[in-house]
Amino acid sequence: MSPPQPPTISEAISGDHKSLDEDADRIRSSTSLEDKTKWRNQLTWALARHAISEELTMYPAMEKHLGEEGVLLTNTDREQHQAVKEDLYKLQSLSPSSSEFLPLLDRLMTDLHEHIKHESEEDMPRLEGKLSREESQGLARSFERTKMITPTRSHPSAPNRPYFENFAAMLAAPIDRFKDLVSAFPDKEELPEKHRSML
Q1: Distance of CA 159 to the CA centre of its chain
Q2: pLDDT tens across 116-161, in order?
Protein backbone atom coordinates (compact mmCIF):
# COMPACT_ATOMS: atom_id res chain seq x y z
CA MET A 1 0.00 0.00 0.00
CA SER A 2 1.44 3.37 -0.98
CA PRO A 3 1.72 6.17 1.60
CA PRO A 4 -1.00 8.84 1.54
CA GLN A 5 -0.44 11.70 -0.89
CA PRO A 6 0.23 15.15 0.54
CA PRO A 7 -2.89 17.32 0.33
CA THR A 8 -3.59 19.63 -2.59
CA ILE A 9 -4.39 23.28 -1.89
CA SER A 10 -8.12 22.50 -2.18
CA GLU A 11 -7.81 19.67 0.32
CA ALA A 12 -5.77 21.77 2.76
CA ILE A 13 -8.23 24.66 2.63
CA SER A 14 -11.27 22.37 2.89
CA GLY A 15 -9.70 20.68 5.92
CA ASP A 16 -9.34 24.06 7.61
CA HIS A 17 -12.95 24.93 6.80
CA LYS A 18 -14.12 21.71 8.46
CA SER A 19 -12.02 22.45 11.56
CA LEU A 20 -13.41 25.98 11.79
CA ASP A 21 -16.96 24.60 11.75
CA GLU A 22 -15.99 22.14 14.49
CA ASP A 23 -14.56 24.98 16.61
CA ALA A 24 -17.77 27.00 16.23
CA ASP A 25 -19.85 23.94 17.13
CA ARG A 26 -17.73 23.43 20.26
CA ILE A 27 -18.40 27.03 21.31
CA ARG A 28 -22.15 26.47 20.93
CA SER A 29 -22.16 23.09 22.70
CA SER A 30 -19.91 24.05 25.63
CA THR A 31 -21.82 24.52 28.85
CA SER A 32 -19.35 26.57 30.89
CA LEU A 33 -18.18 30.12 30.23
CA GLU A 34 -14.60 28.91 30.62
CA ASP A 35 -14.99 26.30 27.87
CA LYS A 36 -16.83 28.71 25.57
CA THR A 37 -13.99 31.20 26.02
CA LYS A 38 -11.35 28.56 25.25
CA TRP A 39 -13.14 27.56 22.04
CA ARG A 40 -13.68 31.22 21.08
CA ASN A 41 -9.92 31.68 21.43
CA GLN A 42 -9.31 28.55 19.35
CA LEU A 43 -11.64 29.72 16.59
CA THR A 44 -9.96 33.13 16.56
CA TRP A 45 -6.49 31.56 16.41
CA ALA A 46 -7.40 29.20 13.58
CA LEU A 47 -9.49 31.58 11.47
CA ALA A 48 -7.08 34.54 11.64
CA ARG A 49 -4.18 32.34 10.53
CA HIS A 50 -6.25 30.67 7.81
CA ALA A 51 -7.45 33.95 6.27
CA ILE A 52 -4.04 35.60 6.16
CA SER A 53 -2.38 32.46 4.80
CA GLU A 54 -4.92 32.33 1.96
CA GLU A 55 -4.24 35.97 1.16
CA LEU A 56 -0.47 35.44 1.12
CA THR A 57 -0.31 32.15 -0.78
CA MET A 58 -3.48 31.16 -2.63
CA TYR A 59 -4.59 34.58 -3.86
CA PRO A 60 -1.25 35.44 -5.51
CA ALA A 61 -1.30 31.98 -7.14
CA MET A 62 -4.80 32.66 -8.48
CA GLU A 63 -3.73 36.02 -9.88
CA LYS A 64 -0.63 34.46 -11.46
CA HIS A 65 -2.31 31.42 -13.01
CA LEU A 66 -5.76 32.84 -13.83
CA GLY A 67 -4.75 36.33 -14.95
CA GLU A 68 -7.48 38.97 -14.96
CA GLU A 69 -10.09 36.40 -13.91
CA GLY A 70 -7.93 35.56 -10.89
CA VAL A 71 -7.68 39.25 -9.96
CA LEU A 72 -11.47 39.59 -10.09
CA LEU A 73 -11.98 36.43 -8.03
CA THR A 74 -9.46 37.47 -5.37
CA ASN A 75 -11.02 40.94 -5.14
CA THR A 76 -14.30 39.22 -4.23
CA ASP A 77 -12.44 36.95 -1.80
CA ARG A 78 -10.76 39.91 -0.08
CA GLU A 79 -14.12 41.67 0.33
CA GLN A 80 -15.58 38.51 1.87
CA HIS A 81 -12.53 38.13 4.12
CA GLN A 82 -12.92 41.71 5.29
CA ALA A 83 -16.46 41.01 6.54
CA VAL A 84 -15.21 37.87 8.32
CA LYS A 85 -12.25 39.73 9.86
CA GLU A 86 -14.49 42.51 11.15
CA ASP A 87 -16.85 40.01 12.79
CA LEU A 88 -13.92 38.05 14.21
CA TYR A 89 -12.32 41.21 15.59
CA LYS A 90 -15.48 41.92 17.60
CA LEU A 91 -15.93 38.29 18.64
CA GLN A 92 -12.33 37.74 19.81
CA SER A 93 -12.73 40.18 22.72
CA LEU A 94 -16.43 39.68 23.46
CA SER A 95 -17.33 37.51 26.42
CA PRO A 96 -19.38 34.45 25.50
CA SER A 97 -21.72 35.48 28.34
CA SER A 98 -22.73 38.60 26.40
CA SER A 99 -26.17 38.54 24.77
CA GLU A 100 -24.42 39.75 21.58
CA PHE A 101 -22.02 36.82 21.43
CA LEU A 102 -24.06 34.01 19.82
CA PRO A 103 -25.75 36.27 17.22
CA LEU A 104 -22.30 37.60 16.29
CA LEU A 105 -20.89 34.06 16.08
CA ASP A 106 -23.81 33.10 13.82
CA ARG A 107 -23.18 36.13 11.58
CA LEU A 108 -19.46 35.33 11.43
CA MET A 109 -20.15 31.75 10.41
CA THR A 110 -22.76 32.86 7.83
CA ASP A 111 -20.22 35.26 6.30
CA LEU A 112 -17.58 32.53 6.40
CA HIS A 113 -19.86 29.98 4.72
CA GLU A 114 -20.64 32.48 1.94
CA HIS A 115 -16.91 32.80 1.38
CA ILE A 116 -16.37 29.01 1.56
CA LYS A 117 -19.08 28.50 -1.07
CA HIS A 118 -17.38 31.02 -3.37
CA GLU A 119 -14.01 29.33 -2.91
CA SER A 120 -15.29 25.80 -3.45
CA GLU A 121 -17.47 26.63 -6.46
CA GLU A 122 -15.39 29.34 -8.16
CA ASP A 123 -11.80 29.64 -6.92
CA MET A 124 -10.67 26.09 -6.28
CA PRO A 125 -11.94 24.44 -9.48
CA ARG A 126 -10.39 27.16 -11.63
CA LEU A 127 -7.06 27.20 -9.78
CA GLU A 128 -6.75 23.40 -9.58
CA GLY A 129 -7.49 23.27 -13.32
CA LYS A 130 -4.32 25.28 -13.96
CA LEU A 131 -2.02 23.42 -11.54
CA SER A 132 -0.47 19.99 -11.69
CA ARG A 133 -1.03 17.85 -8.59
CA GLU A 134 2.57 18.50 -7.54
CA GLU A 135 2.15 22.27 -7.93
CA SER A 136 -1.07 22.15 -5.91
CA GLN A 137 0.65 20.13 -3.19
CA GLY A 138 3.51 22.64 -3.13
CA LEU A 139 1.03 25.49 -2.74
CA ALA A 140 -0.65 23.58 0.11
CA ARG A 141 2.74 23.24 1.84
CA SER A 142 3.30 27.00 1.48
CA PHE A 143 -0.20 27.66 2.85
CA GLU A 144 0.48 25.49 5.92
CA ARG A 145 3.96 26.94 6.54
CA THR A 146 2.66 30.49 6.26
CA LYS A 147 0.16 29.81 9.05
CA MET A 148 3.10 29.24 11.38
CA ILE A 149 4.24 32.88 11.11
CA THR A 150 1.00 34.83 10.71
CA PRO A 151 -0.89 36.79 13.36
CA THR A 152 -3.25 34.74 15.51
CA ARG A 153 -5.90 37.43 15.96
CA SER A 154 -7.99 39.46 13.59
CA HIS A 155 -6.63 42.83 12.46
CA PRO A 156 -9.27 44.10 10.01
CA SER A 157 -7.56 47.45 9.47
CA ALA A 158 -4.28 45.80 8.37
CA PRO A 159 -3.47 45.69 4.63
CA ASN A 160 -4.70 42.55 2.85
CA ARG A 161 -2.36 42.47 -0.15
CA PRO A 162 1.05 40.77 -0.38
CA TYR A 163 4.10 42.74 0.67
CA PHE A 164 2.06 45.24 2.69
CA GLU A 165 0.27 42.39 4.46
CA ASN A 166 3.54 40.52 4.95
CA PHE A 167 5.04 43.53 6.72
CA ALA A 168 1.94 44.15 8.87
CA ALA A 169 1.79 40.45 9.78
CA MET A 170 5.42 40.44 10.91
CA LEU A 171 4.66 43.35 13.25
CA ALA A 172 1.42 41.92 14.67
CA ALA A 173 2.38 38.24 15.02
CA PRO A 174 4.75 38.56 18.03
CA ILE A 175 2.21 40.64 19.96
CA ASP A 176 -0.57 38.17 19.16
CA ARG A 177 1.60 35.23 20.21
CA PHE A 178 2.37 36.90 23.53
CA LYS A 179 -1.37 37.39 24.11
CA ASP A 180 -1.86 33.70 23.27
CA LEU A 181 0.52 32.77 26.08
CA VAL A 182 -1.78 34.37 28.65
CA SER A 183 -5.07 33.23 27.07
CA ALA A 184 -7.00 30.03 27.77
CA PHE A 185 -7.25 27.44 24.99
CA PRO A 186 -8.70 23.92 24.81
CA ASP A 187 -6.39 21.15 25.97
CA LYS A 188 -4.30 19.72 23.15
CA GLU A 189 -6.18 16.40 23.38
CA GLU A 190 -9.48 18.19 22.67
CA LEU A 191 -8.24 19.69 19.39
CA PRO A 192 -8.62 18.14 15.96
CA GLU A 193 -5.44 16.35 14.89
CA LYS A 194 -4.69 19.05 12.31
CA HIS A 195 -4.39 21.74 15.01
CA ARG A 196 -2.34 19.58 17.39
CA SER A 197 0.56 19.54 14.98
CA MET A 198 0.60 23.36 14.89
CA LEU A 199 1.13 23.76 18.64
Answers
A1: 16
A2: 999 999 999 999 999 999 999 999 999 998 888 777 666 666 555 5
